[in-house]
Every structure is written in C-alpha cells, then in structure tokens.
Design a protein that fits this description.
Blueprint lengths: L23 H8 L3 H8 L6 H13 L6 H8 L5 E5 L5 H16 L4 E5 L4 H13 L4 E4 L6 H9 L4 E4 L10 E6 L1 H14 L5 E5 L4 H16 L9 E3 L6 H9 L7 E4 L5 H10 L9 E5 L5 H4 L2 E4 L2 H14 L6 E4 L2 E3 L9
Parallel strand pairs: 1-2, 1-3, 3-4, 4-5, 5-11, 6-7, 6-8, 8-9, 9-10
Antiparallel strand pairs: 10-12
Helix pairs in contact: 1-2, 1-3, 5-13, 8-9
Length: about 350
C-alpha cells in the first residue's frame, strides 16, 4: 500500500520521517557549480548562459524554493517593507496599510507591520529591529524618538518615509507624506461658522505636530470670522479614558457650548458616546465635527474632514520602491464631507 501524498512513510519506530527541504547547496551540487554561482544566477547576476541554464534546470528538477533570508544576505537587504504605526484601531491606518500593501505586492515585496501602542520605547525597538532586518525601506507614522535612526538608515541607503509630518533638512532617502493640517483646521472653522455655530470647543489628542497644526488652522479660520478661539476652549485627551473629563472641562467653562470639534479620528467614538451619554442631541443641542471618515459615519450623519490615507499609503510605498535621488515632501489636501451633525448651512 502506498503512503499518503505529502507524508513520508513511518520509520521503524512508527514516527513519520521529515522530508528534507532542498537547499541551495543541493542545487549547486546537481548543477556542478558553486553555491555563490547559484546565488548569482537566482539574483540575476552575470554568468555564462550555459551555466545559468544548468542552474535553472537543477532548481526546477529539485523543486527548489529560494530562501528569502539567503537572498537578502547576498543582496545586502531584504525585499520586505517595514511599517511602524502607533494605532491599529484607527481607520486612517487601515486604509494607509491597504495602500502600502497594494504597491508592495506589485513590486514583489512583503510588508512587516509593527504597532507601537503609543509607546516611545516600543517605537525605538521596532525601528531598531527593522534596521537589523535590513528592510527594503521603512515607513513610520509615529513620533520623533526615532528621527536620528531614520536619518542614519536613509543615509546608509535604506529609504524611509515619515507619515503625518515633515522633517527639516532631510538627507537623501528620507521622505515625508502628510496632510495639509492647517487647511483641514480652516475647513472646520468655515463649515461650523456657515452652520451658525458660535461657541466651539476642541478636543485634541495631544501635542503632536498634526494636532497642533489643525488647532492653529481652526483658530485662524474662526478669528477671521470674528470668533476667536479661547485657549481654555482647547482640551487634551491623550487616550479614550480621558475623553469624559475633556467633555466636562468644556462644559464647565461657563460658556454655552454649541459645537465640539474632535481633532483625532481615534477619539471619535469616545467623544460621540460622551455627548450622547449626557443627553445632548446632535446637532440640535451641540454640533459635532471630527477627522477621518468611518464606515458608520454616514449612518450617524457625522460631518468629517477626510484624509486620503489610501493614496498617502500608496505614495509612501512608491517612494520606497522608486527611491528618488532627492528627498520628497508630499502634502495632501483634506476633504470636507458635510453631513447633518453640524446642522444645516445658513
């Protein structure tokens, strides 16, 4: 009776024998050449046509699958694109990763994602690991704690892309992809004013450049409309657990609040829940405007400033695979998607 397909017959002790994977040494032996010659052939190096033919025939007969690690050693770097993000729960990052992965697949690259959970220590550790793995390129969306290392990686020949902010005087190979956050803030202001909102509170996710720029754009737009934004009208919620306190702080200012702006998409659910838990009706009692679109935002009628995160992810990955000679700093325009949560335009 023949053995089952794909399983070696048992040995005398009743255990299955492991099928040995074909190695590059086996191919070299079968082709009558050195391991280095096989590696050159598999990686497109210059060898005699007859030698290359023997190597490919031997590889086919032995059903040899090249070892990606071995290939990367000979090439000096792997084909993997490293991506370090700080929040896997955000819709922005999900679409960003989709764009990155699409470009990577077209260029025979894998993508290695790492989540920092907003930890600077994890961020540093992940970037170090990507560097040690000799990734084809690095895309990073987190803070400034790894800027020194990404500069060094770029200078050493590993293209890097910073998403969400730009760097001053970047070296060759260090690029950036970001939203025009000032424009996003101004869009928020103009829409709220057009909807008749006069007393606006802001919930920020912290002091990262994008949050500060959105606040500045909002302040500019409101000031131009004769509705300056007081300093105490901007509160910070570092995580969702702080949102309730942030909403209370805005309501306790002694000013009748008729709109709340959420500057970070990852805080949207918590802010919306905090408002409705207090019995506030949107938009009758308070207008609500946030950043980043969601699959359920249309059903709830939430007005959003949408970021083209899918396109940003594609361009970030294209900067890795194209590796332009000069550093590029790309800025994308936001889009206002007006729904019912701020009321009707006057």
């Amino acid at each position: 009776m023949s053995a089952a397909v794909g399983v070696s017959p048992p040995d005398r002790r009743g255990k299955e024998r492991t099928v040995k994977r074909t190695t590059i040494g086996d191919v070299a032996k079968a082709a009558g050449v050195s391991v280095a010659t096989v590696s050159r052939v598999l990686n497109g190096g210059a060898v005699k046509e007859a030698t290359a033919t023997r190597v490919w025939e031997a590889a086919a007969q032995l059903d040899y699958t090249p070892n990606a690690l071995t290939k990367s050693i000979f090439a000096g770097r792997s084909t993997t694109i490293g991506v370090v993000i700080d929040d896997l729960t955000s819709p922005f990052y999900l679409d960003l990763m989709r764009g990155i992965d699409e470009v990577a697949a077209k260029h025979d690259s894998l993508v290695m994602f790492a989540n920092t959970f907003h930890s600077a220590e994890r961020e540093v550790a992940h970037v170090q690991t990507m560097d040690e793995q000799r990734v084809r390129g690095l895309i990073i969306t987190s803070g400034e704690s790894t800027d020194t290392r990404t500069r060094r990686m770029a200078a050493a020949g590993t293209p890097c892309v910073i998403v969400g902010r730009s760097l001053a005087d970047p070296p060759r190979g260090l690029h950036s992809v970001r939203l025009d956050n000032i424009a996003a803030g101004r869009m928020m202001a103009h829409h709220l004013i057009s909807c008749g909102r006069r007393s606006i509170g802001v919930i920020s996710a912290g002091n990262r450049p994008g949050q500060l720029e959105r606040t500045e754009g909002l302040r500019q737009g409101l000031t131009e409309a004769g509705r300056p934004l007081p300093e105490d009208a901007v509160v910070v919620a570092i995580d969702n657990a702080e949102v309730d306190g942030a909403v209370d702080a805005l309501q306790d200012r002694g000013t009748s609040l008729d709109a709340i702006v959420c500057l970070a998409g990852r805080r949207t659910v918590a802010v919306h829940s905090a408002l409705t838990a207090r019995g506030l009706r949107i938009p009758d009692d308070v207008g609500f405007l946030t950043v980043d679109d969601f699959s359920w935002a249309p059903a709830l009628g939430i007005t959003v400033i949408a970021e083209p995160s899918y396109q940003m992810g594609k361009r970030a990955a294209e900067l890795i695979v194209d590796d332009p000679d000069q550093p590029e700093q790309l800025t994308f325009e936001p889009q206002l998607i007006a729904r019912a949560s701020c009321g009707e335009n006057i």
